[in-house]
Write a structure and sequence with these properties.
binds nicotinamide-adenine-dinucleotide, 449 residues, 18 helices
C-alpha cells in the first residue's frame, strides 16, 4: 500500500522504514528541512540499532522516499501516519499543535479519500478533534477522511525489534473499512514477511502479536494507561529502595523476588535515578491532566511523578555526602542518554544531574557512547570524552547515570589507577557493591546500604 509518514523522528522513521521493509511504498515528510536533506543524502539523523540497515535496504528497493513537500507525500498515499511530537505544555497538558498542523495540512492538500492514523501519543478524544479539523478544513470534494488511532509501543534502543515483533497492534477505528486497511498494512509484520535484521531473516517461532480492534477513545487511552502503569512500577521500586536504605535491606534482592511472581513481573522494577525520555514523563503528566479535566483525581500517578522527580534530589544527596564540597571537583559523568542504546537526551535524568553539578561549580567531564552530540548542543561548556577512561582521569568521583553495557563492563581496576579518588556513586545499580569495594573503591548506589 502507498503510505505517508508525517514526522521523521524516532517513531516516524522506524515506522516508515519497517513498513517499507515489509513491502509498502512509504512517502516520508517532516517540517525540518535539514532532517529531510540528511535523509536524502543517505544519512540517519537518530541513533537506533538496525535503523540504518533497513533504511538502506528500503532506499535501494525504492520503497521509501523523503520530501519537505508535505502535499506531495500526502497526495501520494492512501493512508497517512501522523508521527509528530506531542510535548508537554507548562501545565502538563499535551501540546497538540503539531497534530493540529498536520490535520489542517492533510485537509488542504488531500485530493482523494485518506485514512488518517494517529501514531503519536495523544490524550483520549484527540481523534474526535482530528476528525472535526479534517472536515472543517477539507477543500476537495473528492477527499473523504477516516480517522484511526494506532498507538505505538516501541522502545527507543530496541525500536526496530519492537516494531517487527509487537506483542499487540492496537487499532482504534470507527469504520470496518479502516480495520481492513490497517490489517492489510500490518499483515506482513504479523506474518513476518520481512527481512528481520535482529534475527538475520529468520525470527524464532513463537507467539505473534495480537491485532486488537477497539474504539478510538479506548486505543488512545490504552497507550497512556500502559506508559503510566510502567512509570508507577518504576517509582514503586524506587520507594522500596529508599525503604531498604533505612531498614538495611537490599533492593535488588527484594525486587528480584517480587518479579518472580508472574502477577508482578520483573521488568520496570529497577531502582535508580528514575525514568526520563520523551514518553514517560510527559505521558504521565498528560494522563493526570486528562483525568483532572473530566473530574477524576489520579493521585496515585501524581505520587509516582513526585517520587521520580525526587530521585535526582536523592542522588545529589549521595553526591554531597560522598564529596562534601562539590565546587571545584572533577566529576566524571558516565551516561547522558535517558537510557542505554539511544542518543535521546530529552528529559534525561543525567542532564538534570549535569545541570545541578554546573550550578554548584563542579568541573564536569561527561562521556556517553552516543549522546555527546545532542548534549553538547545544550551544554557547550562541559568537557566531553568519547572514551570513558579519559573522563575518569584525575576524577574525584564517577557518577553513573545511564545503564550502558559499556559501563557494566568497565575495567574499574584500570580506571581507579588514574582517578584522584576511588569513589563511585552509581545511579543505576550497575555493580555489585562487594566487588567494587574489593577493588578499593568507596561506592554508593540506590537501596543497597
Ligand atoms: N520516542 C519513543 O520512544 C516513542 C514511543 C512511542 C510513542 N511515541 C510518541 O510518538 C510521537 C513522536 O515521538 P518521537 O520520539 O518520534 O518524536 P521526535 O521529536 O523524535 O519526532 C517528531 C518529528 O516530527 C516533526 N514534526 C513536528 N511537527 C511537524 C509538522 N507539523 N509536520 C511535519 N513534521 C513535524 C519534527 O521535526 C520531528 O522530526 C510522540 O507523540 C511520542 O510520545 C514516542
Amino acid at each position: 500500500m502507498r503510505l505517508c509518514v508525517i514526522g521523521c523522528g524516532y517513531v516516524g522513521l522506524v515506522t516508515g522504514a519497517c513498513l517499507a521493509e515489509a513491502g509498502h511504498e512509504v512517502f516520508c515528510t517532516d517540517i525540518d528541512a535539514d532532517r529531510i536533506n540528511k535523509l536524502n543524502e543517505g544519512g540517519v539523523p537518530i541513533y537506533e540499532r538496525h535503523l540504518g540497515q533497513i533504511l538502506q535496504s528500503a532506499r535501494k528497493a525504492r520503497r521509501i522516499s523523503f520530501t519537505s513537500n508535505a502535499g506531495e507525500a500526502i497526495r501520494a498515499a492512501k493512508a497517512i501516519f501522523i508521527c509528530v511530537g506531542t510535548p508537554p505544555k507548562e501545565s502538563g497538558e499535551a501540546d497538540l499543535s503539531a497534530i493540529d498542523h498536520c490535520a489542517r495540512q492533510i485537509a488542504v492538500e488531500a485530493d482523494s479519500p485518506k485514512l488518517v492514523i494517529e501514531k503519536s501519543t495523544v490524550p483520549a478524544r484527540t481523534g474526535l478533534e482530528l476528525t472535526r479539523a479534517l472536515r472543517a478544513y477539507g477543500r476537495s470534494s473528492d477527499a473523504h477522511f477516516r480517522v484511526a488511532s494506532n498507538p505505538e509501543f516501541l522502545r527507543e534502543g530496541t525500536a526496530v525489534d519492537d516494531f517487527f515483533h509487537p506483542d499487540r497492534i492496537v487499532v482504534g477505528v470507527e469504520e470496518q473499512s479502516s480495520v481492513e486497511e490497517l490489517r492489510e498494512i500490518y499483515t506482513p509484520i504479523l506474518e513476518r514477511r520481512f527481512h528481520c535484521p535482529t534475527h538475520n531473516g529468520s525470527c524464532p517461532a513463537g507467539p505473534r502479536g495480537e491485532f486488537l480492534v477497539t474504539t478510538i477513545n479506548s486505543a488512545e487511552l490504552i497507550k497512556h494507561a500502559s506508559n503510566s502503569f510502567l512509570a508507577l512500577k518504576i517509582s514503586y521500586a524506587n520507594v522500596i529502595a529508599d525503604l531498604c536504605e533505612r531498614i538495611g535491606a537490599d533492593v535488588e534482592e527484594v525486587t528480584h523476588a517480587m518479579g518472580l511472581d508472574p502477577r508482578i513481573g520483573g521488568q520496570f522494577l529497577k531502582a535508580g535515578l528514575g525514568f526520563g525520555g520523551f514518553c514517560f514523563p510527559k505521558d504521565v503528566q498528560a494522563f493526570v491532566h486528562l483525568a483532572a479535566s473530566v473530574g477524576v483525581d489520579f493521585d496515585i500517578l501524581k505520587a509516582a511523578e513526585r517520587v521520580n522527580k525526587e530521585r535526582i534530589d536523592r542522588f545529589m544527596e549521595k553526591v554531597h555526602k560522598a564529596l562534601w564540597v562539590v565546587k571545584g571537583k572533577h566529576v566524571a559523568l558516565l551516561g547522558l542518554a535517558f537510557k542505554a542504546n539511544t542518543d535521546d537526551v530529552r528529559f534525561a535524568p543525567a542532564l538534570e544531574v549535569l545541570k545541578r553539578l554546573l550550578v554548584e561549580g563542579a568541573s564536569v567531564h561527561a562521556s556517553d557512547p552516543e549522546a555527546i552530540g545532542r548534549t553538547k548542543a545544550l551544554f557547550p561548556d562541559v568537557h566531553y570524552h568519547d572514551d570513558p577512561y579519559s573522563a575518569l582521569q584525575k576524577a574525584d568521583v564517577a557518577l553513573v547515570c545511564t545503564e550502558w553495557e559499556e559501563y557494566k563492563k568497565l575495567d574499574w581496576a584500570r580506571a581507579g589507577k588514574t582517578m584522584a579518588r576511588k569513589l563511585i556513586v552509581d545511579g543505576r545499580n550497575l555493580y555489585s557493591p562487594a566487588s567494587i569495594r574489593a577493588l578499593g573503591f568507596e561506592y554508593d548506589s540506590f537501596g543497597r546500604s
